[in-house]
Amino acid sequence: MRTPAAQPRPAGPPGRLIPGVLQGVEFAPGTARLASGSYVVLDSLVRILLADPSLRVEVSAHTDNSGTAGANLHLTNLQAEAVKNYLVTKGVPFQQVVARGFGATVPLTPDTTPRGRAANRRVEVRPSAAGP
To answer: 3 lies in a domain?
Structure first.
């Protein structure tokens, strides 16, 4: 399950978190194994988090409605944790990142077309008001 190729995010002014979809963060189909192209985007997020230790973020993983609700939730929990683990291996304190999987419960678009399903398979990052 791959999302369409896109430009890496977070973008914008250097050192500033842009909440939303982390364009370019992908996984091998049906797994929590990060695709190699994901690291450029995640390294950008690492720099932002290391520059501002007070910034807490939630990393959320989402999928389309293929498969069962339980399997999708489990997969997205693993994917969100994989992103968090990568950030931590790069020096981000684990307390700075909350990882959550949502399965297919928060779609961006209807899952009625291949393009819609691809858009729903995503990783997002948002500021978190509280630590883990």
So the answer is: no
CATH code of 110's domain: 3.30.1330.60
Helix residue ranges per DSSP H, 6-103: 38-51, 69-89
In a domain, 132, yes or no: no
Compute the distance between CA of residue 123 and CA of residue 88 in angstroms, rounded to an integer. 17
Q: Residue 87: what are its φ and ψ, rounded to 5°?
A: -60, -40
Which strand ranges, in their side-by-side order, compose the sheet holding 57-62? 20-21, 122-127, 57-62, 97-101
pTM of the model: 0.86
Distance CA 91, CA 41 (A): 16
Q: What is the amino acid identity at position 61?
A: A
Q: Quick: pLDDT tens for 50-75.
A: 999 999 999 999 999 999 999 999 99
Tokens of 100: 């959550």
